[in-house]
Amino acid sequence: MSPESTGQNEHHIRVYRRRFRAWRGNRPFWAGLFTMAGGIPIAYFPYANMHLGNVTLAMSTTAGAGSLIIGVLLVTLGLTMWFHSIVRVFAGVAAILLALISIPVANIGGFVVGFLLALIGGALSISWAPGEPAADEAALHDAPLSLDKQRPEREYAPEGALHGSAVPQQSAGDHDAASGYDGGTHRAG
Questions:
Q1: What residues contact residue 125 under an 8 Å CB cut-off, 6+ apart?
Q2: Which of 37, 130, 20 has the alpha carbon at shortest distance from 79?
Q3: What is the pTM of this model?
Q4: Is 120 helix (H, G, I), strand (E, B) or coil?
């Protein structure tokens, strides 16, 4: 190998970073991350104990099981957005609905933090669309155009007519067999 080749000296972190960037670009990554981040405080706060000096504050309520279910479902929907991006719209709608349900059930939606994160994640999931694959420049120039993208380079004029002279144009429905004009963008001949 020559010293100019970059393959042998490439660092592993760069390789993993490129792979992660390609993986992240093919799915609603941020939607899944926000949805999972919204599910964690919704599920955590009803079971959390806060210590202020010698005083223990328990935030557990009667809706602890409902909060746990909503939080686990939001984390599951976030993972679904990552690994099954084909159902991203369903997962986004479900995340928004669970975020709205968490307001009365789970301590005001995980003290509004989990509610907002899940709401943003669901909205991002609904609005995400897969990008077009990047095409090679050479393939773009060599590929023929489809019929709907083909454009005539100049307007067809009967033989013998000079460019720029006043030649009456035929309507699209007329067909003149002598001139070869068929009314469309195709030329007879």
A1: 28, 31, 32, 35, 81, 88, 89, 91, 92, 95
A2: 37
A3: 0.63
A4: helix
- Model confidence over 40-76: pLDDT tens digits? 999 988 887 778 888 877 766 666 788 999 999 999 9
pLDDT of residue 168 exceeding 90, the answer is no
Angle of the 88-105 helix axis to the 29-44 helix axis, nearest 10: 20
Q: How many CB atoms lie within 10 A of CB 111?
A: 13
* Predicted pLDDT of residue 98: 96
- Note the pLDDT of residue 59: 67
In whole angstroms, what is the distance from residue 132 CA to residue 117 CA?
Answer: 28
Structural tokens at position 170: 């035929």
Task: DSSP letter for 187, please.
Answer: B
Q: What does the alpha-carbon distance between residue 81 and residue 85 come to, in Å, rounded to a whole number?
A: 5
CB 118 within 8 A of CB 126: no
Q: Please name every residue paired with 52 in a beta bridge, in sequence order, or none if there are none.
A: 55
Q: Which of 158, 39, 179 lies closest to 96 in space, CA to CA?
A: 39
Which contiguous run of DSSP H or E holds residue 22? helix 12-25
User: Whose structure tokens read 């080749």?
Assistant: 5
Q: How far apart are CA 185 and CA 179, in angstroms?
A: 14
Q: Whole-angstrom Cα distance, residue 139 to residue 146?
A: 14
Burial of 79 (0-12, 13-18, 19+ CB in 10 A): middle
